[in-house]
Each structure stands twice: as C-alpha cells, then as structure tokens.
C-alpha cells in the first residue's frame, strides 16, 4: 500500500478550541501539515505511526509572552529555554525584546539591531519563534512599518513603568538604562506617538489591520516610585508582601485607564493588556472595554500569577513585574478566566539563574533581587491541573493557550488541530501527576518558585510541524524551530 502520510498519530482524544467536546480520533500528517482527522486511519498509509494510548492531544501551545536573551546570551538562552518550552508542550515562542540594557546591550536602529537578533536566534530554537519589538525612540517609531513589511513583525510593546524604573527597581538614569539620546523621553507622550505609529502601520497595511497590535505593560511609574519609598522607609513588610505593596494594584489600574484613553485618542484599535495580576487591574480593563467599545482589547494573565501568591515559600525567587499578589487577587483572576473575561495565559518566561537572582550580600532584600523567572514548561500542565479543579473544559484551555494568542498575533497556521494547520501537537496524560522540582527541568535556571507544587497532568510527547521534538522526559534531535513571518497566510476553508 502506498504510504501517503509521513505520520499518523492514533488513538488520541483530540482537544480543539471552539468545540463542545473531545473526540477520539487519529491524526494524519504530511509535509508538516495536518491532512486528516478521522476515527480510524489505516496505519498502512503512514511511514511512521505513534500510538497515543488514549491520551489528550492538544494543539501546540503558543507561549505568547517570553523573554529570551535577557539574562544570558541570546543564542545560548534560546537553546536551553526552548528545550524547557518544548518539554511543556510549547511549539511557538513569542518573545518580547528591545534595545537598551540586557538583551544585546545596545541601542540604535532596529534595522541594524533586529537582523542581529535573528542571526543569533537561527538554529538555536527547538520551537518555532517570533519577536515582539518595543519602540524605544522616535527613530524606532519611524521604522515600524518597515519592520511589519520586511521582517514580519506584527506586534509591538510599551513598558509604561520605565518612566522612573529600570528592570528591577527605581532608577534615575533612564537614558543610560534604555540607551536613548539626551533629547529622548520615554514617557506618556512617547507612548502616544508609538500608538500613532501603529495606527499609521494599519492605515498603510489595511489587509493586516486585525493582526497588527500593541502590547502594554501597565504599571504607573509615579505611583510605584512613591509607594516603594513608603514601603522601604516603614520597613514593616518584607519579601513578596513588600514588593506587591510597593507596586500596588491601583498602579496597574491607573495605567490601564491611561493606555486605553491614549488608544482612543490615537485610533490605535488593537491593544493587548499584558500580565494582569489583580482584581483592580481586571476591573479597570473591563471598564475600559465598556468605555471604548471600538478598541479591540485583549487581556493576558500568566501561569505564575495563577499558581503563586505572596505567601509563596520561595520568596524572592518569585519576584516578577508586575508582582505576585495576595490569594484574593489570584482567585479573582481564576474567576475572570473561567468567565472568559481574560483571553490567554502565558508564562512570561525569563530565565534568571539562581546565582544571579538574589543579592548574595542581602538575599532577603526583595528590592535587590532580579525580576522574572521561567515557567514555560509548566504552562500547559499548570492550567490543566488548576483549571481542571475549577471546572475549566479542555477546549477552553486550548483557546487560552493556543487559538486566541495565535489569532491575535498573526499565527494563522497554528493554534488548532485541523486540516491545513501546522502539525504542532502535544500528547498529555491528564492522570499522571508529578511534583515540580529541579531534577526534571530542561531550563538552565536551576530552580523554580513553583518547586514543590504537585501538578495532575504530564506532557508525554511534543510534535513541531509533525516532527517529534520531545518524548518521555527527553528532547529529541537538534533544534528545528523556524522564525515565523507574521501574519502568516490564513488557512482556507
């Protein structure tokens, strides 16, 4: 019999977004693309057959918020952290990157900077990848349309808190940290002009209008500066409690209101509100949706903010921006997620090795700790474990982890298990639990603030465009990830 498929994955319960149930099906793949779904596809038609053993088959996870190359050289970080991502079922990594300190530690034009990013990335990712870029200068704003047209960049970012803060805390040297000129200001006026730059991109590329977007890290620099001084001077709080109080939830809420009004003023219609952490932030976002219904808001939450709270035993190892919050905020995030008020879940993965995370002289001082930690490898299993306890359906999880971010960010050939889509597939045993610990991680981080947490599901195999890249605890083969030009072609039918 002629072998018409490269691979058939048999006996899997296929999880698809927008579906009401999970179906027991076989999946046929040819040329890296899903060709057929059917309850019984003959094994004789395939060059290779994998028995899914009645496991769940999720669409490959689109981790839409990662940071690669922030604390380690880009190529090195891409290699280790995409291994971690693949082990967790991630098949596409969308990374925020900018000029300035950290990353490549250089300023200048993105037309010079970004080709170097792509050069250092090539051949080092085990998963497909793309980048969101942050316009830090007026020159960058002027380059946005060329980045869309020539480099397939469809998403940009603003860090609202950089007005008076660096990556880890307050800073009085904005020009030095951001590597911008003496006449440049990274402030509300700059944010407005970035939005006008995106509006111009949409006007010049109307066929891409729905998938050109701007992401906002919403914290208010002035509020943060004042409250940090109060918390440090009073000395009543420590650890994650102190950091949450120093960057209070109403700072998020106020920043969301400002961002929304600027988007309204500039007709910047596609706005992504990143890593919402609190009730006040979510309520502000919902209020702005009602106030400005013509703005297409999307709202993001991270798996870290869903799994951790300020009483986390690992303390400073869980420092991240915006901060981990009290349990009441965590439960509000879960409720908003279940009520479909939030659009996707990400990791905000930023590998920071343990020897650099805490200040060796004052390891208990939260304000001296580095910000960010990894978590991409626990994104899918964390959502299955904790979401399942709260009644979240598997198709809803597939929407949050795959379909919704893929649609927003122009990954039109990813996010679903259907004919014509990339064969990005994750096999999951929802009944095999494990305890998070350093002995099983593929990340170079060496620790996790999630250590000790028991998750109820385990990723068994990950396929990228029909090729197995992870199986039973092991990375398979050399890096096969490709840079994705966005928006990618839309799947017909």
Mean pLDDT: 95
What oligomeric assembly is this protein in?
single chain
Full CATH superfamily name: Metal-dependent hydrolases
In terms of DSSP E residues, the strand content is 15-25%
Rg over CA atoms, rounded to whole Å, is 22 Å
User: What name does CATH use for the topology?
Assistant: TIM Barrel
CATH-defined architecture: Alpha-Beta Barrel
Main sheet record: 9 strands, mixed
> How many domains would you count in the coordinates?
1
Q: What level of helicity do the residues show?
A: 25-40%
Which geometry do the CA atoms define?
globular
Concise summary:
The chain has helices at 74-87, 110-121, 138-151, 174-178, 188-204, 221-234, 239-246, 249-266, 279-291, 303-307, 327-338, 354-357, 379-389, 394-408, and strands spanning 5-14, 23-30, 33-38, 46-51, 56-59, 61-66, 90-97, 128-133, 155-159, 213-217, 270-273, 296-302, 344-346, 425-429, 434-435, 454-455, 458-464, 467-471, 474-475.
Account of the 3D structure:
The protein is an alpha/beta fold. It has one domain (56-475): TIM Barrel. Helices cover 33% and strands 20% of the residues. The chain has 14 helices and 19 strands. The protein has helices at 74-87, 110-121, 138-151, 174-178, 188-204, 221-234, 239-246, 249-266, 279-291, 303-307, 327-338, 354-357, 379-389, 394-408; strands at residues 5-14, 23-30, 33-38, 46-51, 56-59, 61-66, 90-97, 128-133, 155-159, 213-217, 270-273, 296-302, 344-346, 425-429, 434-435, 454-455, 458-464, 467-471, 474-475. The longest helix has 18 residues, at 249-266.
